[in-house]
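Project standup — Tuesday

K.O.: blocked on the structure for the chain from last sprint. Re-posting the sequence here as requested.
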Amino acid sequence: MQLIQKYQGIIEDKIKNYEFPQEPKNLYDPIRYFLNIGGKRTRPSLTMLACHLFGEPGLKALNAALAIELFHNFTLIHDDIMDGAPLRRGKTTVHEKWNADIAILAGDVLFTEAFNVLTKNDPTILPQLMATFTQASREVCEGQQMDMDFETSDEVTIEDYIEMIRLKTSVLLGAALKMGAIVAGEKNEENLKNIYEFGVNIGIAFQIQDDVLDLYTTSEKFGKQVGGDILANKKTFLLLKTYEMADAATKQELDYQMTHNEPDKIEKVKDLYNRVNCLELAEKEKLFYYEKAQKNMANITVPKKNKTTLLKLSESLMSREF
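H.V.: unblocked you, prediction finished:
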């Protein structure tokens, strides 16, 4: 895991010291604030690790990695606005500390800067990088729109939900890895497909785990408000699976809780989830996608030793603490 920590440290240093203009302060101070509140820098580290996987130094993919991280932070700022979230990584969100208009513009600048830094890559691979990046950018927005649409729909299935998180969360992990492979000069289309799908499947498993952690952990460990998905009436795996497994009486109770905002709403919904063993079902679904990711990695034709670090990272993502 030393290589992961090395890349995370490099990204952390670059992000925290990224040079933005000083004026206007109400645009750039919120950006600096948000970039400095931390994060594990997992996505850009994946880009550098994928470059290493295919036989090149991870530093060669630094600009592609920075593009991924800047874009990711743009999505977080805008996501917080849409969710009305008070906390991000245990700190006040940008729209709460300043206001929504400032937060929107701050996110827009990060989005633009992501493309700016991406153009610093080798011109011979830039079209391929840009195609991968823009596809992921569009799909992330599609996933976010689906997520918002789900809040007012009574017809959301587990399959719909998996497609939504594939778009909103997972394709960016897939793109991060594929971009690292492209920078490394990988030409084998099957390898490029498998490294992308490895990221997508890990991402789906990661999001199911995130749904669980939203409720079954503490704010200090999670960095966000516990039970926030319930308060926002989000269609998560836990909610949809409970509806799928529940008897008529449990469904009726769940309907009531999801249409009322009583002080003990989080605990009551949690009790309903526990009634159908939803935590165990979520764990099973998470493992299904995790095992798919392992098969993707097994099909990549590079020396086995090159795969060790990425496999260890994927394992650590699946065992985040409750």
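K.O.: great, moving the ticket to review. Residues 2-315 form a domain with the Farnesyl Diphosphate Synthase fold (CATH 1.10.600.10). The two ends are 21 Å apart (CA to CA).
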